[in-house]
Specification:
Blueprint lengths: L12 H16 L7 H16 L5 E6 L15 E2 L6 E10 L1 H6 L5 E8 L11 E7 L13 H12 L7 E5 L5 H10 L2 E5 L3 H7 L9 E7 H14 L2 E6 L4 H9 L10 H4 L5 E7 L10 E3 L2 E10 L4 E9 L1 H7 L7
Parallel strand pairs: 1-3, 6-7, 6-8
Antiparallel strand pairs: 1-2, 3-4, 4-10, 5-8, 5-9, 10-12, 11-12, 12-13
Length: about 325
């Protein structure tokens, strides 16, 4: 990275949490209404509106897709007010659109930011094999090893029996062999329908009840997760997983090594990174948006990689005042 670039020195995460709060508040209006597209669009619009006021010169590395498919928060879009610092941005206004639409637990709004040129761009690869653990498992597990060996190594590091470990896995047909391996090794499994960002982060949260994440999930979510686990002292490993020959050929043509194991420093090659997440529907990681006569309550996680600080923020919002500040509908 060039020395003449202005690096982020202030704690951007404390400003970025406003963007995830906005996305969560807007998306929660559609909770349980069965329309995941409307929920996602509302969250995108709200996050984009608030991002315009953040003091940074940001480029969306991981967004809602290409410009023609995503009119806002698309890959390559400039974000912020154009002033230094120069940053890379990864967004997921709703990680768990189906969860939101069905009113199920665990949907969150997330954003990750790092200094310019340090965030991994997955290119054409939409999925990756993933392995995530908390601090006790950092440097202990290896995605190349069999499931049973990783579980035994983690159990030893945590001073428990394998039978007392809980693995979190996306509930997908492709994971049936993986699920069988975990069960044969003796560990418990928590299957989730969506939202593996929250699942991976939960592995590093004391008292969450989960210890390790296995399986194939979205590459964009993997990069966002890396920013969080850098702050929490956990570990994340990934391997690109092309869905078909066309995607494989495109990745190879762009110079991606499909055999490479991507670690935290490959995903985010700096400690100067920031993460924020706000709960939309209540899950293991965060409380969801709550409406009362006094206003609206949100709960957020805010992290800074350089300091390793993790904050849990409960905010109380007055929708009538928010309407005077932002052109976004927040109240239910």
């Amino acid at each position: 990275m060039s020395d003449d670039l202005v690096r982020p020195e202030r704690n951007l995460a404390l400003e970025l949490v406003r963007t995830t709060e906005a996305a969560a508040l807007a998306g929660a209006r559609f909770m349980g209404r069965g329309d995941k597209i409307a929920a996602d669009q509302a969250a995108v619009d709200a996050m984009r509106a608030v991002l315009d006021g953040v003091e940074m010169d940001g480029i969306v590395v991981i967004g809602e897709g290409e410009k023609d498919e995503a009119p806002m928060l698309y890959n390559g879009e400039q974000i912020g007010n154009g002033q230094p610092p120069m940053t890379d941005i990864a967004v997921d206004p709703i990680d768990g659109t189906t969860l939101t639409a069905k009113g199920q637990a665990g949907a969150i709004a997330v954003i990750a930011v790092a200094e310019r040129g340090t965030m991994f761009n997955p290119g054409p690869c939409v999925y990756m094999d993933k392995l995530a653990v908390g601090p006790e498992g950092a440097g202990i597990v290896d995605i190349r090893l069999p499931v049973e060996r990783n579980l035994k190594a983690l159990a030893k590091a945590k001073r428990v029996d394998v039978e007392n470990l809980t693995a979190i896995v996306l509930d997908r047909p492709r994971h049936e062999p993986l699920i069988n391996e975990i069960r044969e090794a003796g560990a418990r499994i928590r299957l989730i329908s969506d939202g593996d960002v929250a699942g991976a982060i939960a592995c590093a949260m004391p008292g969450s009840g989960v210890d390790i994440l296995f399986g194939t999930g979205g590459t964009p979510e993997g990069v966002i997760t890396a920013a969080a686990l850098k702050s929490m002292g956990g570990d994340f490993q990934g391997k690109l997983w092309p869905r078909n020959d066309e995607e494989r050929d495109a990745a190879i043509a762009e110079g991606y090594d499909l055999d490479a194991i991507l670690g935290l420093d490959d995903m985010i090659s700096t400690d100067n990174c920031f993460f924020a997440a706000t709960g939309i529907t209540t899950g293991d990681l965060l409380e969801g948006v709550k409406y009362t006569a006094a206003g609206i309550t949100t709960q957020s996680l805010v992290m800074r990689g350089r300091s390793g600080t993790v904050r849990l923020i409960e905010a109380h919002h007055k929708p009538e005042k928010l309407r005077n500040m932002d052109a976004v509908e927040y109240d239910g």
